[in-house]
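Entry 14: structure prediction run for Surfeit 2. Input pasted below.
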Amino acid sequence: MEDLPEDLRSFLQKHPCFQLTDSKKIRCSLNAHEFPCSLAELQRFTAGSKYKNLRAQAEFDYSQYEPHIVSSTKQDHLFCKLTLRHINRVPQHVVRHVSGRRYRRALEQYEECVRQGVEFVPVQLKQKKRPKEAAGSEGRATGSERRASRKQDSGVWTPSTSGGEDSDSSDSMSDLYPRQFIRVNFLTFIHRLKLNKYDNIC
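Run finished. Output tokens:
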């Protein structure tokens, strides 16, 4: 450190995130980048927006939101337990999320649940009820039950679905396509096939 120029030493004292390495380079502890021992390079880096963003992230205290906003499984993200949202690990994004309407409503619901001694369930999980549970708990008929009751009430005959595929296969549809018609068409097809074969040989 003593062999560095005076202006570079004073710059390093003003910016404690820069440290001198064994290989005579300067390392930034915020992003682990190494710079040559050049004051111009360091000043250019510190004047840029990347350094300002890194410094703001390092100085921002994420722990003030910690009971509800925690580290995420996604890299460089945080996770909000109240809204079940992933948030970028950027101070502006966290502040915007915390000051948003969705987070404030969820926080009010959480505090109400704590006062009542009830377990808090996020709104997104409340909306994802299973269809059978929802129908059974409320005593309402499911969609298929409603359709079946409509068929019975309409007075129009509808085929029963209980037979399945077997009932379809037993119907030969002979009333629509008489046997003579099918035989004539089949013979015509064979005759044309033979003619095409003969034309190809000649």
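Notes: The two ends are 100 Å apart (CA to CA). Will compare against the previous run tomorrow.
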